[in-house]
Amino acid sequence: MLQRLVLIALICCCWQVSASTLLVEKQKFTTTDFTTVSGVTLPEVNVGYESYGTLNANKDNVILITHYFSGTSHAAGKYAETDALAGYWDAIIGPGKAIDTNKFFVISSDTLVNANWHDPHVITTGPASINPKTGKRYGLDFPVVTIADFVEVQKRLLASLGIDKLYAVVGASMGSFQALEWAVRYPDKVARLIHVIGAGTMDAWTVAGLEKWALPIRLDPNWRDGNYYEGERPLAGLTATMLNITQDAMHPAIYNASFPDFKVLDKGALEDIRTLPAINQTLAARALARAKTQDANHILYLIRASQLFSAGMEENLATALSRIQAKVLMLPSSGDLLLRPEGARAMAKTLTASGKQVTQSEIQGIWGHLDGIFSITSKQAEIAAFLAE
Amino acid sequence: MLQRLVLIALICCCWQVSASTLLVEKQKFTTTDFTTVSGVTLPEVNVGYESYGTLNANKDNVILITHYFSGTSHAAGKYAETDALAGYWDAIIGPGKAIDTNKFFVISSDTLVNANWHDPHVITTGPASINPKTGKRYGLDFPVVTIADFVEVQKRLLASLGIDKLYAVVGASMGSFQALEWAVRYPDKVARLIHVIGAGTMDAWTVAGLEKWALPIRLDPNWRDGNYYEGERPLAGLTATMLNITQDAMHPAIYNASFPDFKVLDKGALEDIRTLPAINQTLAARALARAKTQDANHILYLIRASQLFSAGMEENLATALSRIQAKVLMLPSSGDLLLRPEGARAMAKTLTASGKQVTQSEIQGIWGHLDGIFSITSKQAEIAAFLAE
């Protein structure tokens, strides 16, 4: 049970699933005059990236990993031998692993408006960045960015390395949005797509649910319409947002199992309305620790990018999917309550109906949405086989 | 589809499911020196109640209806012929209906800390009430109250009418908590229990999830630690809370079906981070309209009462359930994402294992949790048969 409690504390963080000695280095990519889908030109964009394995001479062994909502480019390996944790998919990325770095050059970059602004290993451009034109932080004057913009930045990064085609693109959750966007937007450049705990487009339920994550930030008096960079950070609101995200990404079964000592008859909570139940105090402390590494405005922009996601920026998903040339492996989680497997099942049917080569294999785990991270090893053979074809 | 949209707008509100001519009158019950489970004595408690049908001479034809979280005592009928809507369970309460007011005297009361403080038909005592000792509103000095306290107030109300025993007690959601508490606390006074979309005790998942409803209120700068009665109400926070409650009570299928014109590519939301997607603007306007009839502190107290619920104020549910003498009919909703049917199924097994007479019959609807209200007619024959035995 102790192990489970530790797992909970690490939700959405990096997670060491195997003893890894892959040492990685965060690098910085800069591009200029980047025009967003929303029509605004950013004079400069910086994002961090890391890579595992070696780019071959033909530059045709490239696998791009696109990260989830609260994730970073740290998909595998460690920055130092002494790191407590390896990257979030270290279980499947590395020498001899499902995504074999002896064969493939694996690359992963931080998105625009990455959540983890205060993580020293993250490099991103967003509302917390200095606008070179004004010398001040953008705040809410930063343009809305979309999943397609994330892809365009990745495309420029790859071009800077002389890479024009992807052997595969692989992403979980919001990472699946980016991976799918690649396959729809650049069908002739993407040979394989692995779409994990994902979706093809947003429905009303999900757009409404994502807004629930934004509400606490906007209510925090310290948020001040996004102009908090000279004062107190809206940490109370951001903590509430983290509480929402964490619970939404889990399944009740593992959640309850991870609190084996939970008692409903809570004396403190009974005696004073101002005292939270003990479990809520514990959860709030964990969420605050997470919130401290993040930027509230960046979270709002990630929410908006997710709300506006529809593959290929097409209102009709079937139209977008019809463009795909990549072979597709879909790995939804059966117990997912956030991006429910019904969406992925429908998408697989649409792909099949339009003659695409698609395999769907559901992850049967205990974590709910997070099975895409914590139970990914259950699909390592299928991933390896898919990449070998 | 239009009808579905209208349904959405009425969620958790009263809902006219049949042409009812049952006219009802809100009455007021006052009791003094009421000591809460948390150990505080309230000098005076007032609650509203209404009744349908006639109390017989033996006073043994009484069915108590206990209301859900955001509900009121208005379970059936109309206050005036011109009312647009009848009470929330009007489909099953009335002359010749499943809960037949030609046979039964049906009574329903507003709980303590009822959410709908600004509804002119609601009478309740809570933090918005004047403390007779100080002449000021209680605010957060009001004691924490529990589901058991709600039951104790109901017991005093019934005693004031000379009623000592219940033919049946029937409640949905938080109403099921009260109904179950009756059967556990007063086993010899409750002959039948109908437990709809309910639970027997809170788990870690639900306690954490309920706190998500409280967070926006506490973040609203107008909330001011509950001392807002002389100033602006924390309507922004309360609106966010209503958005949370409404979505949590529904199933994605009906939610999405109710927005047939939903477009993910939202121009306004793409052009400015300050502009919400159209669907979120619509939802926020509806939630604000609901919030205006409610009191934020009362919602916080209802959340706490729910978080602390465990039948019989027992940590061990089996121990509590072993006391029940009532026959039990359990009606969970198969698609319930708020109080998931797994809880009710486990409770039914525990009851059966301890030799109790229990029937479980799941509501198969499209609404999720709200099937306990909107799809209750699908169980009218079973309810009538259960009450006839």
Automatic annotation (TrEMBL), chains A, B:
SUPFAM superfamilies according to UniProt: alpha/beta-Hydrolases
Signal peptide: 1-19
InterPro entries: AB_hydrolase_1, AB_hydrolase_fold, HAT_MetX-like
Taxonomic source organism: Pseudoalteromonas fenneropenaei
Lineage start: Bacteria, Pseudomonadati, Pseudomonadota, Gammaproteobacteria, Alteromonadales
Presence of keyword Repeat: no
Protein name per the record: Probable acyltransferase
E.C. no: 2.3.1.-
Membrane spanning residue stretches: none
